[in-house]
Design a protein that fits this description.
With 472 residues, this protein is of the alpha/beta class. The protein has 20 helices and 19 strands. Strand 18 and strand 19 form a beta hairpin. Bound molecules: pyridoxal-5'-phosphate.
Length: 472
């Protein structure tokens, strides 16, 4: 039975809005929002009393002060920006759930300047006439990739959809069965092709595809030959791929364009840093490939974007397609990308200053030093968990270099499994959020993906945790 008497004790709306503390909250949110919040809280209390046995809601919870506190808390929560800073101790550099590439200092400075004001986004300052938003980074992209022309859209999935729509609508697209991949659960090559109005022609077998397979599939309806980077998986064992060079020969003989979706878009050879061979964008362009697409926020280390480079006639056709307008990039994207790309003019700078590239190329020795300097600020143990520096392995993530593991260093917390689970939860749900890795009962923070400037904050959060009596 509901406690009717208790219901009557819920303060009235009038009474609450006259409260000084509640009134003061109108500085934070407007009156309408404030009233909504109060109504919601009163309603929740009423429902809780109606649905439960007497005593479920203690009488103190109905006192004005208790309700004022609840209103204050709720308003604070509403006013808080929901996208929060996360410190990444997972060791996965391109973590799509964590926003992929962090931007470097220079890029942040440029963004700060442009974001809060007007810019020459679509204005040619020399003539005073209308300009193109795609012009600003075009020269830079041409210089860096060697392509004839370039355009940038919202993301690489959009770039592939746009390219296929502009180049192959109503025509056949020949692609190897081994490259009909799914990336990130929502981008499947066959489905994107269908959306673009082009017709998929699969050739070869999953593990083997020869040039003759493409050759046999060419008809009068063929619009393009396509190559897609497998990105998030590796084909091992009894396999054969047709190389881009072979495809380019066929393309020349039969006068059919080739599209290559590179996925990540690498600008630098990373083999000196222990990575397996991957073709760079420059190499693919130099092979004569007609259209090349790649992401802005994967290995390149910039912001979310889809970059399309290639032969001028095709890029012109793509630029005038109506989807280009629908996939248009904002000034913040263009700005962040231009600033990131500028650093590639000096590869040594790119290595040092683009966080993604830096994290990919930092050596185990440097990581050891980084881990020891972090460890220096930490006690030997907290809440019975032993803290040490351990060798670990991190990954690039974001579908790049699948299966490739880089030697790294982690701060480990070993001991009672219940305690490590509590630690993981405490760090993940607090502010700023800290993401680590639980493995076989121990907790790990991989220092590869943690910024040195964040060490002190993590130390403070760990200290706060040890001082809590509530285990969570
Ligand atoms: C990641 C990826 C995409 C999608 O790129 P987004 O920028 O995330 O839209 C498309 N193709 C390949 C091969 C990829 O690796």
């Amino acid at each position: 039975m509901a406690d009717r008497q208790l219901l009557r004790k819920i303060p009235k709306m009038d009474e609450l809005i006259q409260n000084d503390m509640i009134n003061a909250l109108q500085q934070k949110v407007g009156r309408d929002t404030l009233l909504d919040v109060i109504r919601q809280i009163i309603d929740e209390l009423r429902q809780a009393i109606l649905k439960n046995e007497p005593g479920f809601i203690p009488e103190e919870e109905l006192e004005i002060q208790a309700i004022v506190n609840k209103v204050q808390q709720k308003i604070e929560q509403i006013c808080e920006i929901q996208i929060r800073k996360v410190m990444n101790g997972t060791g996965v550099i391109l973590h799509t759930n964590l926003g992929r590439s962090p931007l470097g200092e220079y890029t942040k400075d440029v963004l700060q300047e442009i974001a809060g004001g007007y810019s020459n986004l679509e204005l040619d300052l020399n003539t005073g006439k209308r300009g193109s938003r795609y012009q600003h980074m075009k020269e830079l992209l041409l210089k860096l990739t060697g392509a004839e022309d370039a355009i940038v859209v919202n993301n690489n999935a959009g770039a592939v959809l746009l390219v296929l729509s502009a180049v192959a609508k109503g025509k056949e697209v020949i692609i190897s069965r081994g490259e009909l991949v799914e990336i990130g659960g929502s981008f499947r090559v066959p489905e994107v092709m269908e959306q673009s109005g082009s017709k998929l022609v699969e050739v070869g077998a999953t593990n083997k595809c020869y040039l003759k397979d493409y050759e046999k599939a060419i008809t009068d309806e063929t619009g393009t030959l396509m190559k897609v980077h497998r990105s998030n998986f590796k084909l091992l064992g009894f396999t054969h791929d047709t190389t881009l060079e072979e495809l380019m020969q066929l393309s020349e003989e039969r006068q059919i364009p080739v599209i290559n979706d590179l996925g990540s878009g690498l600008f630098m050879d990373l083999q000196p840093y222990g990575y397996p061979y991957e073709p760079t964008v420059q190499e693919v362009v130099a092979s004569g490939c007609d259209i090349v697409t790649f992401s802005g926020d994967k290995l390149l280390g910039g912001t979310q974007a889809g970059i399309i480079v290639g032969k001028a006639t095709w890029i012109k056709k793509i630029a005038s397609h109506p989807l280009t307008r629908a996939l248009r990039v904002d000034k913040l994207t263009l700005c962040a990308l231009e600033a990131t790309l500028k650093q590639y003019l000096h590869p040594q700078k790119a290595l040092q200053q683009i966080p993604t590239v830096r994290m990919m190329t930092i050596s185990p020795d440097e990581l050891e030093k980084k881990a020891q300097s972090f460890k220096h600020f930490l006690p030997e143990e907290i809440k019975g968990l032993r803290i040490s520096v351990e060798k670990s392995y991190s990954q690039v993530g974001g579908g790049a270099y699948p299966g490739h593991e880089m030697e790294s260093r982690s701060i480990s917390f070993r001991g009672n499994e219940e305690t490590t689970t509590q630690l993981e939860r405490y760090l993940r749900t607090g502010k700023p959020a800290i993401m680590g890795r639980l493995s076989e009962g121990a907790y790990f923070l991989d220092v590869r993906t943690i910024f040195e400037s964040d060490f002190s904050v993590i130390v403070k959060r760990l200290n706060d945790w040890t001082q809590r009596s509530d285990p969570r």
